């Protein structure tokens, strides 16, 4: 695992079919080189569609393949429920807040 500090990516309020392409571009641009550590901060996110879930899964796979890691934090109950229902809650790492997300990399 890399010694570098994790990058924090703050998600927009809505991640749906109209914003997913930009979200994907921004997230993939944040994954640079091997061992990238990425925190997705959902503090402002109130809606996520399947298009957004696909981008999160793509990022997780790309990070894993390059020896990096992903932590999702600050998910409100409705967004966390989307991850539970989709089954993604079993394969991704979650933290209740940004400080705890940073601690997972220490």
Overview of the structural elements:
By secondary structure, the protein is α/β, with parallel strands linked by helices. It has one domain: 2-Layer Sandwich (Transcription Regulator spoIIAA), CATH 3.30.750. The chain contains 4 helices and 6 strands, in the order ββαββαβαβα. The strands form 2 sheets. The protein has a 4-stranded parallel beta sheet with strand order 1-3-5-6. Strand 5, helix 3 and strand 6 form a beta-alpha-beta unit. Helix 1 packs parallel to helix 2. It is globular and about 30 Å long. It starts with 6 loop residues before the first strand and ends with a helix. The mean pLDDT is 93.
Any chance you could write out the topology, listing elements then pairs?
Blueprint: E1 7-10, E2 14-15, H1 20-30, E3 37-41, E4 47-48, H2 50-65, E5 69-73, H3 77-86, E6 94-95, H4 98-103
Parallel strand pairs: 1-3, 2-4, 3-5, 5-6
Helix pairs in contact: 1-2
Short description:
With 106 residues, the chain is α/β, with parallel strands linked by helices.
**Number of domains as seen in the coordinates:** 1
State the strand order across the main sheet. Answer: 1-3-5-6
Distance from first to last alpha carbon: 10 Å
**Roughly what percent helix?**
40-55%
Rg from alpha-carbon coordinates: 13 Å
For this structure, the CATH topology is Transcription Regulator spoIIAA
Mean pLDDT: 93
Element order, helices and strands?
A: EEHEEHEHEH
């Amino acid at each position: 695992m890399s010694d570098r500090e994790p990058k924090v990516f703050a998600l927009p309020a809505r991640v749906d079919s109209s914003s997913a392409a930009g979200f994907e571009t921004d997230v993939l641009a944040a994954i640079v080189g091997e061992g990238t550590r990425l925190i997705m901060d959902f503090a402002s996110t109130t809606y996520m569609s399947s298009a957004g879930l696909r981008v999160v899964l793509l990022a997780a796979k790309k990070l894993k393949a390059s020896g990096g890691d992903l932590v999702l934090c600050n998910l409100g109950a409705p967004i966390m429920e989307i991850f539970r229902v989709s089954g993604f809650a079993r394969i991704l790492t979650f933290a209740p807040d940004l400080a705890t997300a940073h601690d997972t990399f220490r």
